[in-house]
Q: What sequence folds into this?
């Protein structure tokens, strides 16, 4: 079987949850061929992979968002558009369930140049109508450039040459979802969706906080990403998520319940279950196994640790992971310096987590949004309890989901709540015997429900069911 995995902003360029999941799955399914159809932000990253690709990766097709900006309009006049094509364009600009098959025909079969299209009279006519109804008090130039920047990447995805495969499996909605639609449209092969986090909700959170989006257009950008999610929810033959609440959210957002199922993450339990606990040495070592990125909210972690450090002088924080966002990383380092914590916070970078875990008493995760974090599963398998924000599946991992009677393996705090995070860390620091008890509960939970081999078995069954 040849499986096309469609990824956006993750494997093979970066480390972290989705990338680790992808690499482990490909490596485990040696009998299948994999095509990677991957979206990155910058063409300068071409071929610059964080991972050494497994031998059963037979093709990598890279698509870069900044290449869309380099498409030059051709001088040929665009063919006149049919009424259904104009309607599809209007619905696309309105973010109101466009006819994707009509749009795919234009850009995949008719090979319409996206830059030419966005300078055409047809586009300007529809845009003017939108300005009159939605943005009468916003300068036309602002609306034009916003809509152009919104649509150009999507049109660019729809014009991509489709690699051959037996199934197209996208690992998020968004731009990757549109490429999966393109693959299914062009080949007639089945399309699958697996969401680790709810992409549209994550984009909404980013846009609300973003400075680059003019306030007048924030609602439109949010609506745009929900439209992209709806496109793949509607057309995927099977939709999987990692846990029950995520599946319910997908259904609330329009996914057909009959298509939806849950395949939990799994880790190689045997790699972590025998890591010895850290000997008592007068210090309590806390680790955040995390990419340094805004969505992981490292700043709230630093502030919370500062508050904890004001109460206790026996704590150290280790931040284990690479840098996703250079500017944010610099801000975090400066914050540590400003708060006088350089001696107490260690930026260890990318490390061998299994080896480093020997130095750690418990772990912490302060993300604003999560799916089912592998770092928490690995920590629990190693008998290290966790403090996490109450996002994604973290509550189920620490307290147990339906039918789970093991008990509590850590403490939760509200996202972005520094005092709550600090209080949870302080509770975890109070008793080594309680940490050992919670760590053992976490180990049992992972052994029972989150094994890598079981996850692979379920994805094998999923692929067989649609081929």
A:
């Amino acid at each position: 079987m040849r499986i096309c995995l469609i990824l956006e902003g993750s494997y093979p360029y970066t480390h972290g949850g989705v990338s680790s999941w992808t690499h482990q799955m490909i490596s485990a399914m040696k009998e299948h061929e994999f095509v990677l159809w991957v979206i990155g932000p910058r063409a300068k990253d071409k071929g610059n992979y964080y991972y050494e690709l497994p031998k059963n990766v037979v093709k990598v097709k890279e698509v870069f968002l900044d290449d869309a900006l380099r498409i030059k309009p051709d001088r040929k006049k665009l063919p006149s558009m049919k009424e259904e094509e104009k309607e599809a364009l209007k619905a696309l600009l309105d973010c109101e369930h466009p006819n994707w098959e009509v749009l795919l025909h234009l850009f995949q079969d008719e090979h319409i140049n996206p830059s030419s299209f966005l300078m055409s009279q047809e586009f300007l006519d529809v845009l003017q109508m939108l300005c009159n109804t939605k943005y009468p008090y916003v300068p036309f130039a602002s609306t034009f450039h916003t809509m152009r920047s919104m649509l150009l990447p999507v049109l660019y995805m729809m014009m991509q040459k489709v690699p051959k495969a037996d199934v197209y499996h996208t690992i998020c909605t968004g731009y990757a979802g549109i490429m999966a639609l393109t693959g299914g449209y062009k080949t007639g092969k089945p399309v699958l969706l697996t969401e680790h986090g709810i992409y549209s909700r994550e984009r909404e959170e980013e846009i609300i906080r973003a400075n680059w989006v003019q306030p007048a257009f924030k609602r439109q950008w949010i609506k745009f990403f929900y439209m992209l999610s709806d496109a793949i929810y509607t057309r995927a033959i099977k939709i999987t998520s990692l846990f029950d609440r995520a599946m319910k959210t997908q259904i609330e957002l329009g996914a057909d319940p009959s298509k939806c199922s849950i395949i939990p993450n799994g880790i190689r339990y045997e790699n972590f279950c025998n890591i010895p606990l850290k000997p008592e040495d007068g210090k309590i070592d806390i680790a955040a196994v995390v990419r340094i990125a805004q969505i992981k909210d490292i700043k709230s972690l630093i502030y919370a640790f500062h508050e904890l450090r004001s109460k206790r002088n026996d704590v150290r924080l280790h931040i284990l992971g690479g840098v996703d966002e250079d500017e944010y990383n610099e801000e975090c380092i400066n914050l540590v310096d400003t708060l006088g914590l350089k001696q107490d916070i260690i930026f260890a970078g990318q490390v061998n987590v299994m080896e480093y875990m020997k130095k750690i008493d418990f772990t912490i995760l302060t993300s604003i949004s999560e799916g089912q974090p592998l770092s928490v599963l690995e920590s629990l398998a190693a008998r290290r309890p966790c403090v996490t924000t109450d996002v994604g599946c973290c509550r189920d991992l620490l307290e147990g989901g339906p039918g789970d009677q093991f008990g509590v393996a850590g403490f939760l705090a509200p996202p972005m709540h520094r005092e709550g995070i600090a209080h949870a860390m302080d509770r975890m620091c109070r008793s080594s015997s309680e940490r050992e008890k919670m760590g053992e509960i976490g180990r049992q939970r992972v052994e029972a429900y989150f094994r890598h081999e079981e996850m692979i078995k379920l994805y094998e069954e999923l692929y067989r069911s649609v081929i």
